Amino acid sequence: MASVEEEQKPLAYIPEIVLKKRKHKEESIALTRKNQLELGARAEKKRKVHDIKRPEHFVKEYRDRELDLIRMKQRTKRPKTSKSAVPKSKLLFVVRIQGKNDMHPKVRKILYRLKLSKVFDGAFMKASEGVLEMLKRVEPYITYGYPSVKTVTDLIYKKGHGKKDNQRVALIDNNIIEQQALGEYGILCLEDLVHEITTVGPHFKEINTFLGPFSLNKPKDGLQGKKALFKDGGDSGNREDKINDLISKMN
Fold first, then answer.
1. Sign, Cα dihedral of 185, 188, 194, 198
2. 211, 178 in Cβ contact below 8 A?
3. Could you tell me the pTM of the whole model?
4. Of 42, 138, 186, 223, which is most buried, counting CB atoms within 10 Å of its CB?
């Protein structure tokens, strides 16, 4: 049997310079970690301070919302739409461009009914009297116009998705459209879907119910942050054919 001394192996020799480098590296890592923790703690403390809202902030929010409601009521009291202002197309594409804490709950509710729950959400709509009335109520927070066939096609193919049983469904397979969603209406493929939307066909409502809102990107330019009407140099309201230029920057 080998003795204990024979079983023990000598320790490997490590040069002093290597040991010093290891120690320096460990100290450097520890110092970096300490600085990261201190910066994180300071940032968290600063964030908590900013999160605290003063009473005057709540008063301002309340006044902004009440003012928003008053303006909405004023917009609905405008004279009836004249013949010259009747939409040039049955099909509209509406994009939400603004609206956060300054909106009255009634205005927010209308935006939700229009499937515009988030800023830069977009949706197709039929230019009916009821829809135009709702658009008027939320006009400062939206812009809309008449999408071209190319715009409709690009939106469907690039950003389109449906909803089936409260589940998001990607439009990547015609079988989904035919067998799971719209086959009973004679809509068998994406081309049929695009055609029904562009022509505002008899099953436009069913298709629009199936389609989810289009999540668009914030444009690099094209919006100024103004609630004034587009025709008056602002961002909101009817852009007519110019909506296609804006969508191309957001798609």
1. negative
2. no
3. 0.69
4. 138
